Amino acid sequence: MSQAGFVALRCAILTISDTRTEDTDRSGHLLQKRLTEAGHELMDKQIVIDDVYRIRAKVAAWIADPAIQIILTTGGTGFTGRDSTPEAVSVLFDKPIDGFGELFRQLSYQDVGSSTVQSRCLGGLANATAIFCLPGSSGACRTAWDGILHEQLDGSHQPCNFANLVIPERGTHGG
């Protein structure tokens, strides 16, 4: 395996909420800050209501856009009310990333205890795009970014990372 260095990835952030606005979107802002501080590029950031078809349409459009390599969603991953992100997005995956949700819940247990079992956080790959669906709380987004995504979106992280799967010329180095 060749040693790959850091490459800025082109990212999109989708906040899923019936109540948040650009001014009150703490989780979306946290993700934007974290990814740009890490050297990645924000290509688009939007808010949609928690509706299966609106979520699916936006994520599908970004998957089809060759300018987007990473999609981060925040919100709609619980069990209450209209939470429907997993139902909206999982059908779009070519391959699920089962370990992402598993590791997130393991890390989250340290902060929220057994309540982490109610998180339906998930990840997957579709059309050479990595998609990570995070809970809506800024604490959960911080846990996911700091504990998983920061390293996994860095092409220099060894022995494997997701950056190498979404960069076409490196697509064989994923692990």
From TrEMBL:
Superkingdom as given in the UniProt entry: Bacteria
GO biological process: Mo-molybdopterin cofactor biosynthetic process
Residue span, MoaB/Mog domain: 12-156
One term under GO cellular component: cytosol
Pathway recorded for this protein: Cofactor biosynthesis; molybdopterin biosynthesis
Keywords: Molybdenum cofactor biosynthesis
UniProt cross-references to PROSITE patterns, sorted A to Z: MOCF_BIOSYNTHESIS_1
Family: Belongs to the MoaB/Mog family.
Cited NCBIfam families: moaB_proteo, molyb_syn
Function: May be involved in the biosynthesis of molybdopterin.
Record-given protein name: Molybdenum cofactor biosynthesis protein B
Taxonomic source organism: Aidingimonas halophila
